[in-house]
Design a protein that fits this description.
Blueprint: E1 2-6, E2 20-26, H1 35-39, H2 44-52, H3 56-73, E3 86-88, E4 94-96, E5 104-111, E6 114-121, E7 124-131, H4 138-145, H5 148-155, H6 160-179, E8 191-194, E9 201-204, E10 216-221, E11 226-233, E12 241-247, E13 252-260
Parallel strand pairs: 2-12
Antiparallel strand pairs: 1-13, 2-6, 3-4, 5-6, 7-11, 8-9, 10-11, 12-13
Bound molecules: coenzyme A (COA).
Length: about 280
């Protein structure tokens, strides 16, 4: 994806989204000097969680994720980044508490090297990012976590396609359970993605009743190492999806192309070969 423009305004107010905006922060771009101002944005609960992290990289990912949520939400509603209040649903999904009736909603994901935040209004929204280079026995994990047809599709691949298929399912499954807000309370083998068509589709077993037509899924390569999936309901082929790269509190905002035009909420061609996100 190529930078399309740079917005120098520190807190540029964007118009309310008529679609979905996905904001990405790549950790190597976050200067250590930003950590203190990011910590100043945290509420008491977030501070406690921050201090509990023992691994430096994971602690930084958590901190950057919170800064990304707070500063980005302030683009959509006139609330200072440090003033947002959140509650968690019974499965732990953070939601904006109080305030406007504007349907503003978000979902956050972070992994080694990147944080991703999806923002929209009046929908169920889930996002997941994963690092494909991480060392994992993907065939075994597929058998353990995926529906049988998904695991077979992973095992049928060869070479780099094995890992690509694995992370396609993994990110899509995570995005779906996060959009439902229920996390691992949903049975991971109770729903099954099909990647053989132009766009991912989903089917449900009786253990996980839901309606496939209410969902739209999107896959994107966001860097050579990172894969992202988005789940949104209600499904609408006309919803525009924009991607931005940002570093909280720096004024850096780059819109990444290609934006996904209406009607093309689908995965990037070439993803299975690990090709460039262009
Ligand atoms: C917690 C869970 C919702 C996501 O976990 P994850 O993939 O490790 O983490 P991500 O970085 O994608 O998302 C974490 C963020 O999701 C949000 N979140 C937490 N609970 C959530 C829920 N029930 N629904 C939606 N979002 C949730 C929070 O903002 C959280 O950020 P924080 O921890 O910094 O506060 C859940 O799916 C889980 O525990 N997954 C474990 C991994 C796994 O076994 N996956 C199998 C996939 S096939």
């Amino acid at each position: 994806m190529q930078p399309a423009h740079r917005d120098a305004a520190t807190h540029a107010k964007r118009p309310p989204p008529d679609g979905i905006d996905v904001w990405l922060t790549f950790m190597p771009e976050v200067a250590p000097a930003l950590h203190a101002p990011y910590r100043a944005l945290l509420d008491a609960d977030e501070c406690q969680r921050y201090k509990r992290y023992r691994v430096d990289g994971a602690r930084e990912e958590f901190l950057v994720g919170k800064a990304l949520v707070r500063t980005t939400l302030s683009r959509y509603r006139p609330v200072a980044p440090e003033s947002w209040c959140f509650t968690a649903n019974r499965y732990g999904r953070p939601e904006i508490s109080g305030g406007d009736d504007d349907g503003l909603t978000f979902n956050l994901s972070h992994t080694r090297g990147v944080a991703a935040l999806a923002v929209a209004r009046h929908c169920d929204l889930g996002v997941d990012v994963e690092t494909v280079s991480r060392d994992s026995a993907v065939r075994d994990l597929a058998g353990r976590y995926f529906a049988p047809a998904e695991a077979s599709y992973v095992r049928a691949a060869e070479g780099p396609a094995i890992r690509e298929r694995f992370f396609a399912f993994w990110t899509l499954k995570e995005a779906y359970i996060k959009a439902r807000g229920m996390g691992l309370a949903l049975p991971l083998d109770g729903f099954c993605f099909d990647l053989t068509g132009e766009a991912p589709t989903i089917g449900f077993a009786p253990s996980c009743p839901d309606d496939p037509v209410r969902w739209t899924f999107l896959r994107r390569l966001i860097s050579a190492e990172h894969r992202l999936a988005l789940a949104v309901s209600p499904a609408s082929p006309a919803v525009p999806i924009r991607f931005f790269r940002t570093v909280p509190l720096t004024g850096i905002v780059e819109e990444l192309r290609p934006a996904v035009p209406p009607g093309e909420a689908t995965f990037l061609h070439g993803a299975e070969t690990g090709g460039p996100a262009s």
